[in-house]
Design brief:
The chain is α+β, with helices and mostly antiparallel strands. It is 29% helix and 23% strand. The longest helix is centred in the middle third of the chain and has 15 residues.
Length: 155
């Protein structure tokens, strides 16, 4: 049986660990520019964002990034789970569940009315995991890369 998982907030000095976990998910972070590293480091220090690390036996084995956002039409904020990463060797061992539970607890303590996340179409295992935790698919994710490539006259 795997040992227990400890969840804690990432410290600014752990930026490299955070970026390496993101790179393992396929994000272009491992060889990031100084500007990207500064931006990521700034996120670790924001009041409206928590980067949580999961540790097992003294090793970081997962990450969750939680953002709190005010919403028009709601008296309470919305929480967004921007990233959820578990190292391949510790998947299906409770790390992801512990991270989501910690994010859910923090969102509830902040008075949020909803916890939202995005999941890529190709991540079938992740979608099943989220459904098992009670998440519901409520729509589609629409993106417009910037600078915008809108047709002339639309701006």
């Amino acid at each position: 049986m795997p040992s227990s998982v400890a969840i804690r907030r990432a410290r600014p000095a752990e930026l490299r660990v955070v970026l390496d976990l993101l790179a393992d998910l396929g994000r272009p972070c491992r060889e990031s520019s100084p500007a990207t590293r500064r931006a990521a480091g700034g996120i670790l220090e924001r009041d409206d964002t928590e980067v949580l690390l999961a540790e097992r036996d003294g090793e970081v084995v997962g990450l969750a990034c939680l953002l709190l956002l005010p919403r028009l039409g709601h008296a309470s904020p919305e929480a967004r789970l921007l990233d959820l990463i578990v190292t391949p060797e510790t998947r299906a061992t409770g790390v992801g569940r512990a991270l989501v539970a910690a994010a859910t607890d923090r969102a509830a303590a902040a008075g949020c009315h909803l916890l939202r996340l995005e999941c890529g179409h190709h991540r079938g295992g992740a979608k099943l995991f989220y459904r098992e935790l009670g998440f519901e698919s409520r729509g589609e994710d629409w993106q417009l890369p910037l600078p915008s490539r809108l047709p002339p006259g639309v701006r």
